[in-house]
Here is the input.
Amino acid sequence: MSEATVMVVEDEEGIRELMRLFLIKKGYRVIDAEDGYEAMDKLAKENPDIILLDIEMPGMNGLEVCEQIRLQTKMPILFVSYRKELSYKINGLEAGGDDYITKPFDFNELEARIRAILRRNGWKNGDEDKLAILEFGDMKIHIDARELYVNDKQVRLYHKEFQLLLLLAQNPNRVWTAEQLYDRIWGYYSEGDIQTVKVHISNLRRKVEKIQPIRCISGPSEASATSLQQNKVNQRQPRHPGGAVFNLTEVIH
Here is the structure.
């Protein structure tokens, strides 16, 4: 996955340099910063595709940096830390991180996580793909800007809500289980509950419905997701009695 830009925020020079050299060898453009203050300064001038963020740094720690970044942008953040405690992982994800990897790590695993996060966030090689807009009737999803517009009005979404919407929109004919969505958006190894998928889908539908009504298909032991359709084709999806299923298929204007 060449030409994606990665920011590495790490106070230990040796680790930072190893990460920089590895990522350059793999074809990434790398911006590095030795602490949170330098990272914030560079983010005012640069727009990386993903940030690798250490937690324990002098001055402004990684959690504080993440919170500051989230006030400005939704760009993906992968925490890289020596701390293996579950509480640190939870705090990192709740602060706005997309994933968490502990040191020492295998560099191939690090790149695999970077690639997975970029895919989940709609990154593709080529400027024309990064600037793509997905359109479903009166709904427009700006992939690069990570913005949703309905009837030309912007719908403010949280990071995970946008990730869910983008995944569903990029696979409009696929039916997903809550487990599949959780694994794709939160990560297979994340510590959490798949109920969070239903909560995020519900919040997403509520926000969209304020501007444009959405039809929900439901049956025994099932719930439908945000419903959209590209060519105004109304097609009922088959039932999945084993549990909740989610898709992107119908729209009411």
Remarks:
- The first helix runs from residue 13 to 25.
